[in-house]
Inverse folding.
């Protein structure tokens, strides 16, 4: 410690003609000593002593450094040493100023009834919303088997939301997908599912296609424990020249085992969607009871996962794919529902209430 301060009494030559790097080391050492000394300062008087000693007018560390290191340095070093002095001593001045401020606050507090030993105001750090966490988990699973993530707009046209998915205007399948139409943008609606991105992606890209599409979707629904006018989906689509029903089932099984645990079994039930043929509902063996029956699975041993199917050849007609050459599968997961199942949440509205007592439980 004392060593570096003694060096401030030495001239450039006597210091051993340091290089730039040598000077940098000297300055660093000086700064270390200064901040060490400053830590020990406990009163305004001590702070003044520190100031005079380090940056005072006469015989301070700063004035000695100016006199001995700078003035006696050879011309080619002067510029560099000068700027070093400027930067490092500006730093010391800053430390001095904040120490002064801190002492002033303590001074004020001492004369009053402010108790500095009381804990401060905690500003809690938030956590990722459970829906976001669930999305991340889904991305990890599907990324690991080669699906990439594609996003689309929440405002869609009826063509992409319905027609190109093989749902013509007067088709009854539109009934359970009533949505919000934009009054000041006629011809636009809020998408009822993420499926329109199947069409938009295939329009732009030739097979192979392997995508998942996250996003918010809208329905004309009254909010209750399992319904909401806005919820979250993850669409999946895989199209290539040789995709079979086995690939389809294997992919979903992989997903279910990654998401709910390795012992999970899946089963298919026949279903109907205009854009898949055949269509299926996937069930998974109940992750709570393992299949023996409990409240979560309503004593059936199975929980309904989501709708899916092999892409209907009619859809390929809308995107200029040759249905004789390509085949594929698609699925549409309800992310809120999956999160509710996995984390045992019984009220969908919890996701949207912004109640930190709920959110905090999923750090
Ligand atoms: N779009 C359907 C819905 O929101 C879900 C769905 C079912 C998506 C089957 C698919 C699929 O891609 O193949 O109800």
């Amino acid at each position: 410690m004392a060593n570096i301060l003694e060096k401030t009494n030495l001239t450039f030559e006597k210091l051993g003609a340091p290089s730039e790097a040598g000077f940098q080391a000297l300055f660093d050492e000086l700064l270390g000593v200064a901040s060490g000394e400053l830590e020990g300062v406990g009163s305004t008087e001590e702070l003044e002593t520190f100031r005079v000693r380090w940056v005072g007018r006469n015989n301070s560390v700063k004035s000695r450094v100016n006199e001995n290191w700078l003035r006696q340095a050879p011309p080619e070093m002067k510029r560099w040493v000068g700027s070093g002095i400027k930067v490092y001593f500006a730093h010391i001045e800053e430390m001095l100023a904040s120490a002064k401020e801190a002492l002033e606050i303590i001074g004020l507090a001492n004369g009053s009834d402010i108790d500095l030993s009381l804990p401060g105001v905690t500003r809690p750090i938030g956590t990722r919303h459970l829906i976001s966490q669930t999305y991340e988990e889904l991305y990890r699973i599907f990324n690991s088997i080669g699906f990439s993530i594609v996003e689309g707009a929440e405002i869609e046209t009826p063509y992409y939301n319905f027609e190109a998915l093989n749902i013509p205007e007067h088709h009854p399948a539109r009934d359970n997908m009533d949505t919000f139409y934009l009054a000041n943008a006629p011809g636009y609606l809020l998408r009822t599912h993420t499926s329109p991105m199947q069409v938009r992606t295939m329009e732009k890209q030739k097979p192979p296609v392997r995508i998942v599409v996250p996003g918010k979707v809208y329905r004309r629904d009254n909010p209750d424990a399992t319904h909401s006018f806005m919820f979250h989906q993850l669409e999946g689509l895989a199209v290539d020249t040789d995709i079979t029903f086995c690939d389809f089932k294997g992919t979903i099984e992989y997903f279910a085992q990654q998401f709910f645990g390795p012992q999970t079994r899946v089963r298919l039930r026949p279903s109907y969607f205009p854009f898949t043929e055949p269509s299926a509902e996937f069930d998974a063996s109940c992750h709570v009871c393992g299949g023996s029956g409990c409240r979560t699975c309503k004593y059936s041993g199975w929980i309904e996962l989501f709708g899916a199917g092999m892409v209907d050849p009619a859809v390929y007609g809308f995107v200029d794919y040759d249905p004789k050459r390509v085949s594929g599968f698609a699925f549409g997961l309800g992310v809120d529902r999956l999160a509710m199942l996995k984390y045992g949440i019984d009220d969908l509205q919890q996701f949207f209430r912004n109640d930190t007592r709920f959110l905090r439980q999923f750090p």
